[in-house]
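Journal club side-thread
Mid-discussion, someone asked how the predicted structure for our own chain would compare to the paper's figures. Pasting it here so we can look after the session.
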Amino acid sequence: MQPKDTLLKKGWDSFWIMATLMLVIPPILAILLSGLNSKLLDVFADSRFWSAVGTSLQVAVLAGSIALLVGVVLLSTTRIYRLKSQARRADSLELVGTVILVTPALILSTATFLMLRGMANVFSLAFGIVVLVNALMALPYVIKTLNQPMQRLAAQYYPLWQSLGMHGCADFG
């Protein structure tokens, strides 16, 4: 049971919420209002705008799918390690998926371009590099979101897997 909020606590919370809104909303409104001008319809009519929207959506869907796939495979492996009392190994593997938060996306993209510069035409690989970097940047959030539900399901069904003699890829169900 949480203690009942007093009027003073509610007032204090309301003050900080309002103060934060007063700092955040004016710049957002200024950006939105400056975008609402006479050229807005021209932008919506321009095919380059819709091409950019389509490319952004392709990057988002591909990067999200790759991050989800890699995250599920990584977490499937770590949950088996945890069920077999190898928590240290599981923690190390999860750390690999979250260490990307330490590296800014700009540095990762630049390093990838520089690394591939001598091997291929990096400008033809730009789309793939952007998708890869976005997928890597999303991976920690996938791991954080899916870790507990997958671990809970594994703990619930692991005895069943063992009793049925399921091993290998069948464990990933």
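Post-session note: The helical segments are 7-35, 40-45, 47-83, 87-98, 105-116, 126-164.
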